[in-house]
Amino acid sequence: MDPFRNPSTREDLAELEHQQREFLLRWFEEFYFDPIAEEKSGIQRKYRWPSINKVDPFEELSSAFGQRISTAILKEVAKDLSRRSDDWRARPDEFASSKHQIGRPAQMGDHLGTRLWVMPEDLRLDVLQRIAALEATLAVIQFPPPHFGHNNPPEALDELPATQADVGALQETLHVIRDEIQKGRTTPEALTVHKSTLVKWAKKVASWIGARATKFSDEAASSAGKVAGPTIILAIAGILPKIEDLTSAMQNLINYFSNLS
User: What would the pLDDT profile of 209-231 be if each residue is shown by its tens digit?
Assistant: First the structure.
């Protein structure tokens, strides 16, 4: 939604004010920086920050948005920024040329090769909650030691629908998605790539299970707890509905962004 729109209801006003706070924070962090914090984080800059004058967050926000966003919201965001640091500085002119050329607010930041997409809170939280649910499912999967089952043919575990490395790669993908969503640095393109990765992972597992459904069912009925194979396969299969939930939530965000184009 446009953070500069006119609210239609009291509920819409509350949502609008939340979006404006998020928008202002992202805009400020795009064009200003805290040199001490960046130095501690190991961020290397091409410019020498001691030569850049300090700025007052409220003055900068008022200059850019004083005619479009209420003073109360500007003061609230400026106060939050001032609590975080008393040493904010403007990035050099090479980054500042687009500072006030906001255009469509959902797509600002193109000059730095990134976009700060303003996401509706309900869609953003839905994706984060689906990620958490999937991570919780992954966390309880227990892979057997290597070569477990080799003395118990024909239920040897030489092959599984997913390996421990596969699950680790999936967890890393979820970490990246969550980080991008939380920092407001995601894009429709990035979401589409991540979604494709998740779908491919799920299709691989589903195909494996589908091709061995009869054999797996027979082993599960006869093993009576002697072999870990059916148990871990069931655990891995339980990932699939959670992936479907997450990709559906991601698609909702993608559709929202598409409607802004």
Answer: 777 655 555 555 554 444 445 66
Q: 87-96: per-residue pLDDT in tens?
A: 898 876 544 4
Helices of type H across 41-187: 57-65, 71-84, 93-96, 121-139, 164-182
What is the pLDDT averaged over residues 83-108? 59
Which pLDDT does position 141 carry in this prediction? 82
Distances in Å between the alpha carbon of 166 and those of 89, 153, 204, 232?
Answer: 43, 25, 11, 14
DSSP for 145-157, written as a single string? PTTTTTTSTT---
CB of 68 within 8 A of CB of 16? no
| Sequence-separated (6 or more) residues with CB below 8 Å from residue 233 | 160, 161, 209, 216
Mean pLDDT score across all residues of the chain: 75
The answer to whether the CB of 87 falls within 8 A of the CB of 56 is no
CA distances from 143 to 1, 151, 191, 235 (A): 44, 17, 30, 10
H or E element that contains 230: helix 229-237
Q: What is the mean pLDDT of residues 4-20?
A: 80
Give the DSSP letter of residue 8.
S
How far is 43 from 80, CA to CA, in rounded Å?
Answer: 23
Tokens describing residue 149: 């089952």
Cα separation of 77 and 86, whole Å? 14
Contact indicator for 123, 15 with CB cutoff of 8 Å: no
| CA–CA separation, 241 and 130 (whole Å) | 11
Contact call for residues 101 and 5 (beta carbons, < 8 A): no
Do residues 56 and 86 lie in contact, with contact meaning Cβ atoms separated by under 8 Å?
A: no
